[in-house]
Amino acid sequence: MGKIFGRWLAAVQAYAAVDDPQSDIAAKVALVIVANQPFYPLYLHAIAGAAAWPAWLTLLTAPLFAAVPALARRNPLAGRAVMVLASTAHTVFCVKLFGARSGVELFLIPCALLGALLFRPDERIRSLPLLALPFVSYLLIDSRLGEPVMRVAESDYASLVSINAMSVGALTALIGLLTSARMPAN
Hints:
The structure is a single chain. By secondary structure, the protein is an all-alpha fold. It has one domain (2-181). 72% of the residues lie in helices and 0% in strands. The protein has 8 helices and no strands. It has helices spanning 2-16, 21-36, 39-48, 62-74, 76-98, 108-117, 124-144, 157-181. α4 packs antiparallel against α5 (76-98), α5 (76-98) packs antiparallel against α6 and α6 packs parallel to α8 (157-181). The longest helix has 25 residues, at 157-181. The chain is globular, with a radius of gyration of 17 Å.
């Protein structure tokens, strides 16, 4: 069993590896998201019960994130752009599913962080729309998405905000750790 897991882990690490440093960060974050996506609906079911059925729809975006490493190896700029686009689109989709009161909009913070960190200075002009996308999304989504699909008891919202805030904190920390690992040593 240990050998099988070891081979599987080596294959995942090989798939995640990209020569371009910023693209490597995008690839690793994308695969962490893919690995965690199946657990998110389970957390929401533990909080809200059967009302959390829309959480399973979040798995529809997994192929976008799973494609980031392969795309980043072929075209680093495109891979990084897809990471920002996919993460922002996923967050907007989740706001429609769960509503702003769930705190899921907080995921726009790591989306903006990715938009700022994944692009080199010579790519800045081309990447500005990607950096702006999470901010524009935040300003526009509440008034345009309508009622959320998921309906939960008032008492469940504090727990939803808590789980989303903790997840955002962990994702932001991961992005920071991966970025700092790429910085030159003094």
